[in-house]
């Protein structure tokens, strides 16, 4: 099947009655200038051991080093804007062709693009909380302390250490994961965009879909079970072409 035929098939899948969802990973945001984590040859986790840099035990053991790494990752998001893929997914939801977006990303770009129903299964950087008393804070409280030289940032109520509301390695999954799992019950179509489908339990979500389409630069463990696999570097181009076929460009 040619690329053009795959795009037309995907458009036809989206038009069928039923609940359609998108499931996105880091590859959907690379065109926005945000580095990928697992791509061969360029992924962050090829250079850094995530258990030593981005785990709950790393935060507890060496909090200052954890925050030095985490804030470096956060700075890579600074100034990032949604790209064509983010905007297309938001438009598909607006047109009732998608029921929502489930994302592994913590960059907030789906919301910035206008998506209304977003399940951030690995958390986000809008808030933080105290590790000891669980008092919640806006993320800027943590950020302002770090920038003023307080590393690790501290809770004003009990003096405990603050942590970002992202799912670290060794963390339990957050509430959004279970909401997404429930939402996918009876899912007709799941479009996976820019995910290696290697990080569990999030990578188990495709098993809930009746039909699976994968848009990713590299092969995934789920390719053999997908109705369509579109291996393209630029997800934005795939969705630009899809929107044109749907008459939504």
TrEMBL record:
Transmembrane regions listed in the UniProt entry: none
Entry binding sites for Zn(2+): 130, 133, 155, 158
Pfam families the record matches: SIR2
Organism: Pelotomaculum schinkii
Entry keywords, A to Z: Hydrolase, Metal-binding, NAD, Transferase, Zinc
Keyword Repeat among record annotations: no
Protein name in UniProt: protein acetyllysine N-acetyltransferase
EC number: 2.3.1.286
InterPro entries for this protein: DHS-like_NAD/FAD-binding_dom, NAD-dep_sirtuin_deacylases, Sirtuin, Sirtuin_cat_small_dom_sf, Ssirtuin_cat_dom
Gene: cobB_3
